[in-house]
Amino acid sequence: MPDIFYYETGSTRAPYNLALEEVLATAVGGGLDGCFLLWQNSPAVIIGRYQNAMSEVNLPELKTRGVDLVRRMTGGGAVYHDLGNLNFSFILPQSGGQKYRTAEMLAPLIEYYDKAFGLKVVMEGRNDLTVPGRGKFSGLAGRRLPGGWQLHGTLLYDVDLSVLEKVLLVDPAKYRSKGVASVRTRVVNLKPLINVPLADMWAGIGDAYGYQASELPAELAAKASELSRAKYSQTSWNVGQSPPGDVTLKSRFPFGSLELRLSVRKNVVVEAALTGDFLTPSDLPEPISVDVLAAALLGLPADDQEKWARAWGVVELGKVFGGQVDQEEILAWLRGA
Fold first, then answer.
1. Are residues 221 and 89 in the same domain?
2. Is there a smaller number of Cβ atoms within 10 Å at the N or the C end of the chain?
3. CA triplet 286, 288, 290: central angle to 5 degrees?
């Protein structure tokens, strides 16, 4: 394991904690040694970088309950946090041929649950840690940084699953594709399985990695506070403008959902937004921004989907969405086939 700093954020405010991740990511890219974070958030929904908040989250329910909504910098789906949840993040420098792998970074965590509690944990699907036969207790997401790499995730310990079900809007296609009926059947809390206080699990994870907590540098904490106010507490970032909606295409693929919304004027596409719970690749030397696909449709005829497909056909879609991507399947969907 890399020799890095271990920090605890000292806050349960989701906007600050997400801002601190970004500040540390910027600092690591600028030469700071890598770091490992453990923290908790007060009730909050954290949505993926490319998600449409209005499609994924019950915004009136969040307002009624006083639950924060915060958009993170990584892709993937929406997750609910409360003080029954523990979050972790690795932010590591990366240069030359150096490469970190998710399985390598999570090995001490998986070994900890096995050795301490006899709990068998496996990586499953695109980004889940599960207890076979019980369900998922962790969702993961990652991204490449300029000169670095980030991996973060959740650890459900004693989350209020009844609130989770009320604040997240679940795409029925997601569960049909997985053969399950609801959020509750797919997630599991660790507390009944390990029977120790959360504070003990927190300390055990730090010990498993061999890390001793360091004091967070004051200048980084100050930058995080400012970024929290300027970005992560702002509706313009967390919800954003309503995406265009004259034309809407939506489907689910093995790598996640895609929702394409277009505005049309005089039969010409004048606005385009591509959203979804897909994960952008973090292990490619030159990934392609998802914004390239939306921009490729601007100026094209709104009634000629074959031209849309040709515009996307020159892009290596595996470099946009990562994993095993069937380019022809995506282009067929775009054509309306």
1. yes
2. C
3. 155
In terms of residue numbers, what domain contains 319? 247-335
Beta-strand runs (E) in 192-254: 247-253
Give the Cα separation of 224 and 16 in Å (integer): 6
The DSSP code for 164 is: H
Query: Which pLDDT value is given to residue 182?
Result: 36
Buried b (16+ CB within 10 A) or exposed e, 86-125: bbbbbbbbbeeeeebebeebbeebbebbeebbebebeeee
Sheet holding 44-47, edge to edge: 68-71, 44-47, 79-81
107 and 10 in one domain? yes
Q: Which two tokens stand for residue 260?
A: 């394409």
Tokens representing 169?
């809007």
Consecutive 10-residue averages of pLDDT for the chain (337 residues)? 83 98 87 88 95 87 94 92 97 76 91 96 87 93 86 96 90 42 66 96 94 91 97 92 77 91 90 91 80 95 92 94 87 87
Cβ–Cβ < 8 Å for 334, 296:
no
Which pLDDT score is estimated for 324?
Answer: 75
Two tokens at 70? 């915060």
| Contact in structure between 250 and 38 (CB atoms under 8 Å) | no
Domain-terminating residue out of 212, 235, 258:
235
190 and 316 together in one domain: no
Mean pLDDT for the chain?
88
Write out the two tokens for 108: 């001490």
Same domain, 252 and 189: no
